[in-house]
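Hypothesis: this fold can be encoded by more than one sequence.
Test: take the structure tokens below, design a sequence, compare later.
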């Protein structure tokens, strides 16, 4: 699959026109293309009846834009698959494996495992000899590795100056976590740590808990995080960045 630069430029110009930008100078600044280049491509688009004399997108132009963007999406998707298949992934062998041997892949306790090839599900090729329970590498991954749907539950509590006592907020936290299903528990901040200590509960994640929760969710685990309102607001940018990076991970926010 090949994409010409001219096609990309014309699609981007047409997309800007669709979004209300009609002046060539405005489009030139938006796309960082020379004004002469924008004028040149607009003339081509007009000749093809994709935009009218008022620099408005036509039905034919919309169809061209829609099909063109789908074509680029297919190109990007196939390119990512090609890159992904050439990468070497860490994997734990469930049997003695030989270099070049085809193996089936699956998640076990949050880690990627390779076992004898079954012809079902995800698979790949072992890149080095390994014994059972040893880490090896796998490449040419095909198929979908099933990971159970998980989420991150963020439980916010009042700031320290607003609570009546540590014992009071501890009881509320205890009752809240007793009613949810989670694999790991994490804390952010001194107040959350003090509450866990008061409940005689050792959290799995105490430092970089939000990052750790997203990493756990990638591997099929649900994490509950206890955090004060103050630390939650401090962490919002970090949470947004991680949500953008991992959009499939569900985030459930509760306040007690």
């Amino acid at each position: 699959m090949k994409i010409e630069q001219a096609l990309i430029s014309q699609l981007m110009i047409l997309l800007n026109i669709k979004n209300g930008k009609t002046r060539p100078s405005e489009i030139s600044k938006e796309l960082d293309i020379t004004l002469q280049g924008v004028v040149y491509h607009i003339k081509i688009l007009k000749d093809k009846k994709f935009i009218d004399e008022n620099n408005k997108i036509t039905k034919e132009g919309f169809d061209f834009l829609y099909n063109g963007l789908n074509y680029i999406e297919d190109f990007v998707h196939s390119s990512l698959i090609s890159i992904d298949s050439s990468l070497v992934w860490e994997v734990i062998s469930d049997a003695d494996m030989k270099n070049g041997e085809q193996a089936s892949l699956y998640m076990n306790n949050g880690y990627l495992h390779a076992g004898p090839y079954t012809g079902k599900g995800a698979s790949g090729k072992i890149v080095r000899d390994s014994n059972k329970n040893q880490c090896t590498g796998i490449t040419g991954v095909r198929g979908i590795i099933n990971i159970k749907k998980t989420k991150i539950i963020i439980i916010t509590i009042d700031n320290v100056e607003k609570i009546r006592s540590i014992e009071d907020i501890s009881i509320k936290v205890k009752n809240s976590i007793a009613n949810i299903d989670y694999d790991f528990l994490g804390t952010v901040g001194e107040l959350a740590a003090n509450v866990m200590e008061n409940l005689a509960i050792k959290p799995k994640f105490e430092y970089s808990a939000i990052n750790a929760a997203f990493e756990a969710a990638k591997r099929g685990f649900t994490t509950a995080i206890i955090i004060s309102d103050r630390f939650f607001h401090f962490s919002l940018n970090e949470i947004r960045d991680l949500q953008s990076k991992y959009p499939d991970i569900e985030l459930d926010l509760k306040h007690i």
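The chain has a mean pLDDT of 89. Residues 20 and 56 are 8 Å apart (CA to CA).
Hypothesis status: open.
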